[in-house]
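Q&A log
Question type: sequence-to-structure
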Amino acid sequence: MPTLSVKRVYEEPSPRDGMRVLVDRLWPRGLTKEKAAVDLWLKEIAPSPTLRTWFDHREDRFDAFAEKYRHELEHNPAVAELRALVKKRKVTMLYGAHDPAINHAVVLQAWLAA
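Response status: OK
Response body:
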């Protein structure tokens, strides 16, 4: 059964990752395409630039950010593409944020699982 997981893009790629999908709007700093081993860059699924800038990875804004991002996802056509991939194979969503608990990829993963 296909699964969906999240992983920081700076972590070492693994065969267990399945298809590696970068879900950030911006390419990760200092990382070459070869080192990132990204199979698909789905930047359209990332939070809007306005929301991303407002959030600024501030822990005190995370709950409000998550709510606003879930609202954006409800109207995002890229969600259908990601859901189709997850139905077929294991997918690991990659993100560049430092905090593994306070980032849009964990919000996206929970939203897709709901």
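Response note: The radius of gyration is 13 Å.
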